[in-house]
Each structure stands twice: as C-alpha cells, then as structure tokens.
# Entry
Amino acid sequence: MMYRHTPVMLDEIIAYLNCKPGNRYVDCTVGGAGHSRAILEKIYPDGLLIGIDQDADAITNATRLLKPFGANVRLFHENYVHLPNLLSQLNILKVDGIIADLGLSLYQLENSGRGFSFQKNEPLDMRMNAAAAITAADIVNNETQTQLETIFRDLGEERWARKIAQKIVMVRAEQQIRTSGELVKVVCDAIPGRALHQRKKHPATKVFMALRIAVNRELEVLEAFLDSALDCLNPGGRMCFLSFHSLEDRIVKKRFRLWEGNCTCPPDFPECVCHPEKKVKILTRKAVRPTERELAANPMARSACLRVVEKL
# Structure
C-alpha cells in the first residue's frame, strides 16, 4: 500500500504543542503519520504518542512507519470522538497535548478508491471508515430532494443547491447514481452555463465536500469531541486544530471563545446569565495560515487554518 501524504503546517504544530521528552500526546487523525512521527522524535525515548484514525489504511501505514518507536506508540482504529474511552483503556487520565487534523489525506483522494475526488471515476463511497453503514451513494439515491438541497446548502455552502438536488432526483428516477464520475456530470449539467464557466474551482467541489461531511458526520463528531476534549488535557497542555473549511473552523473558534470565558448570552440580554468560566488561553488570536513557501510545495494546504489553546 502506497500511502502518500504531506503533513500540513508541521513546524508550526510541533512548536505550538511544545513537545517535551517524556510527555504524552494524542494525534486524533493519524493520516499519513507525519505529525505523529515528528511528535515522537521530540518526546523520545520516554514519551507516549497515542494515534487514532477511523481509516484502517491509515493505521496500517502508521504501524509500519512508526514501528521504530516501539512501545512509545499506541495506535487505535477508532473515531477520535472516543478519546476518553481510549485513554481509560490505557489507564491514562490526561495528556499534555492533542492535535486534530480535520482534512483529507492525499492517499484518500488519490488511492483509496472510495470516490473522495471529483477527478476520478470511482464508486461513490466517501466513508473514512470503510465499515460504516452509510455511503455517499446511499445519500444521493435515497434522500429526498429537500434533504439533498439542505446538505448541499448547509454543508457545502453551494449556491446552486436546489437545482443540483432537482437534477439528482430527476436522473436517479431513470438510473441510480453510483460513481463519482456520474455525480460530477449531474452537478455540471445542473449549474447554469454562465455560472458554470465563471467558477474558479471545479463545479463539483462543494457538493463532494458536503457529501463527505454528511457521510462521516464530521461536524457532529467535532462538536461531540469538543464536549469532552478539554477534560483530557493536563493544565498547561495544548490543543491544536487544523481545519480546512469554514464550517469546521467556525465550530472550533466558537468553542475556544467559550472556553476562554466569553459570554454567550444573546445580545439583547440586560445582563449575563451564563457566567462563563475561563478555562484556556487562546494562543492563536487569528487563525494561523500556511506560509507562501509551504503553499508552493504543497498546494493542498491552501485552505488550512490552525487554532491553538492552552489549558489553564
């Protein structure tokens, strides 16, 4: 298996995590194991890296790549939302740092065969965990027109969500849409000609993103993880989130502000009733973006946003 991926903002993340020998860190989304390997190099020989990924291919790759670090690595084929349970299995109460890279790996786009890319004609799957029940084809062929429109509009911020949903329902009435190539054609046929040619990105970009998010319940998982993640950190521990679209970044930004003790009461309330508690220090007041040098070497990093907090 050829698992190719370049870790995004590697130097910045290692610096923000403040990795120290003997400490414990969690990589919630191991992917190509680039972040994990760099963390291990900093915490060796007495530290521990706990790696999690719901993609079995990523765990297989990480097992091979990180083998030289031996007992300093514990890998789990799981969803990162289950981090508290995984720490309990290891008899660990808290860790010193957490990194979650919420993007797709280059391997998933190029070699997984699961239809993540609109540039390939593959089965319309999009499951990060190949054992999950619902595929992108299930959603495309079974959801109502209204539900499809909601997915494309809310999760993909797709302007032509209604027309695309209408076209999908019309096409699938004759024959089910089973491949990524078939879906790309439907999307391109649905978008009005002038709008289609004016797009800077591929016309199917937002639809594919929305379906991937829906299939893997990415936003619900992120919200649920944030409900318990801070309790998994030691005081002084740091948490890094690398997001690649505005919906994820908005969730992380909002939660960081809540942890910082900002009032969440509606603006028209005469006084604060939520009484927020300051739990963290935000280390990235604005999201950190990749450097021009990194973008030249790795264009996939262009939409990356890094946000970091330190637990008080």
About this structure: The CA atoms of residues 278 and 284 lie 16 Å apart. The chain has a mean pLDDT of 94. The first strand starts at residue 24 and ends at 27.
